[in-house]
Amino acid sequence: MKIAPDLLEHARPMTDLIPLPDNSRHGDIPALAESLRRFGQRKPIVIDGDNVIIAGNHIFQAAALIDADEIAAIGADDLSVEDRRAYILADNRLSDLGGYDQDALIAQLREAAETPSGLTGTGYSTSDADYLEVLAAKQHVDFDALIKSHSQITDLPEVTCPNCGHVVKLL
Questions:
Q1: How far apart are CA 59 and CA 63, in angstroms?
Q2: Cα–Cα distances in Å, from 57 out to 31, 44, 63, 75, 157?
Q3: What is the pLDDT of residues 70-106, one digit of tens each?
Q4: What is the reported pLDDT for 162?
Q5: Around Cβ 171, how many Cβ atoms within 10 Å?
Q6: CA of 33: how far to CAs of 71, 118, 122, 170, in Å?
Q7: Average pLDDT rounded to a whole number, residues 102-122
Q8: CB 74 within 8 A of CB 49
Q9: Where are the alpha helices (DSSP H) in the chain?
Q10: Would you say 54 and 76 are in contact if contact means Cβ atoms under 8 Å apart?
Q11: Residue 136 contacts residue 102 (beta carbons within 8 Å)
């Protein structure tokens, strides 16, 4: 596995590191391995003073899956035991709290899909872009305008909300 040049000074033998026991987070190891194959390691994992991985356990597992000998790791010795425990929780949770600008994401996926390497290593597929595009279109439906524009049509007695399935009876 290629390690980014700026991280090489932090490279450690994989055999020196210990995965976090009872890690509560689950990851898609094959998808991460595909990303490592394409991009290499671009950010370090984080370890405590005993070489236990407190952030980056899935990257470590993905690196092992592709038979990497080394991985870049930085220490968190400056954190107390209490703060290390809290950091593990924060590392696992905080990205979940973010969201996406769907239009920007769709545009980025479409642009990347047109390159020679496509979406390899991104965790996305072209069908994901298609799905997001359909989902975004459904979320932009103005049901009030739809109902008003179809109020004179007698062969459309109801409309189903694509998001929640609620049926709206047309008058």
A1: 6
A2: 14, 11, 10, 14, 54
A3: 999 999 999 999 999 999 999 989 988 888 888 888 8
A4: 66
A5: 7
A6: 13, 16, 11, 52
A7: 89
A8: no
A9: 29-39, 57-65, 81-93, 102-113, 126-139, 143-149
A10: yes
A11: yes
pLDDT tier for residue 21 given thresholds of 50, 70 and 90: very high
Q: Which are the contacts of 133, defined by CB distance < 8 A and separation ≥ 6? A: 106
Kindly list the structural domains of the chain, giving each domain's residue range(s) and its CATH number in brackets, ordered by start.
5-97 (3.90.1530.10), 100-139 (no CATH), 141-171 (no CATH)
39 contact partners, CB below 8 Å, separation of at least 6: 121
Query: What whole-number distance in Å separates Cα of residue 97 and Cα of residue 120?
Result: 25
Note the pTM of the prediction, 2 decimals: 0.75
Pair of tokens at residue 54: 């407190």
Q: Confirm if 58 and 29 have CB atoms less than 8 A apart.
A: yes
Name residue 146's amino acid: L
